Amino acid sequence: MADSTQDPFLHSRPSGGRASITYVKQPKKEIITPKIDTTEPTGGNFVPVDLNKAPDEPFFPASFEEWNHQDSMLGGLGGLRKRLERNGIIIKGRYLEDTSGNPVGGKSQGVRYAHEFALGTDIDLLKLTGYDIGIFHFLVTERAGLSLATSMLPAISSVQEIFGSGETVRLTRLTLEHHFNRYIAMEAGWFSTENDFAESSIHWNLYVYCEFQSNAICGMPQSLAFNSGYGWYPTAHPGSYLKLYPFGNKHFMMSGGIYNVDNTISNTHNGWKLGLNNTTGSYLPFQFLWSHGGTDEHGALPGNIRLGGYWDTSEVKIVTNGSARFQPASVNLINLPQQSVRGRYGGWIEVDQMLQRDHDGSSRGTLLFLSYVWGDPRTSLAPYFATWGIIRKGTFPSRPNDTINFGGKILILNPKLADYAWQLRSLGEKAYIPSNENSIELNYGWRPNPWATIRPGLQYLWHPGGTNRYPNALILDFEVGFTF
Known about the structure:
The protein is mainly beta. Helix content is about 10%, strand content about 40%.
């Protein structure tokens, strides 16, 4: 199961401030952070880090084979990492790139590349200072590149999960997390809603949604970002959450939060924005989590069920105000509704279940996940949205960490958009009827070592842009990631 100590390197999502038809929810592709030990250091004392101490291990690996089996590309940095971790300081970094091309279908053919660098730290202040203050999280991301969904298809959901949120250097997390006891935990600062509400589960130390390159799947159910002020990775919103564990364990959890809604936060010049100017309201999510079964390797087959909802206090225009994005510029929008409403709402359900493991103690098995999101019919672009996926870990006897992943999305646009388009047609306009945009993805996750993933795959997209204006598209993917 996922909790707030998981690495925030995991995701992303649409840019609420863009005029483009493409909404990019960027992944939740995070590096999974090792669980921080919050027990009192032996004797109640802490050992300060001595950066001048001679390395207790070689800085460079002795052989290619040794380098290939390190936990990260840069290894232990001559023992520095181990000394920092003994004092509660975990350093993490990642590079991830998505390259996609559409040889068939869409508006035109082409290839686009996008990437993200991420660098951050988690600091257990109890180990570092001897005082139980909490865990300090800090994360910076840098994104660059171009979107196939914007330029070639188009597509409502990005086919590259790492593209979006204003390609720039950005503060992604600056928070303090504190576990008061085994019943109560909270976190406050600047971060994304995506890390703690409608988030993906973690199985086999894999963030299961981000076994897919499609941004519709990776990160979180993407229509939450279309429909509301949900804060998506890698943007950082002022906010806080409270988590309650009624039975003193993580089998059942109730949580609620409050986050600032700012439709300009994803703009390139707002990468380090900390203030509240341009605030439109507050996003108030709640969630119930039931986690059942044993571990991934032992006991009953594990699974999770999340049930959640939200209230967004912002004043927004009704959905038909967005009709122009589905029509050519030549279409004369007649009597376009312009009403606004204050407050929008919605909910979600997410289910994941391990279907089998090869044998007790095995890390090879098969997992199924499903999600469904419903949004306010007055304002939601996609009030009906579902994702699904099947993940098989351990593809061949000699490849226990590789995965085969097959999944997809069902995106149904608001029927009010179609009603308005039919009205335009009745008045003689050659309008396109918005309906849905569905897709499937099949990929292979090759993990040649613990710190690298190479993922070739393909996607097939029905009704690019949510209309019949362009032919269905075949998309070839190539994703590469390294953990530093």
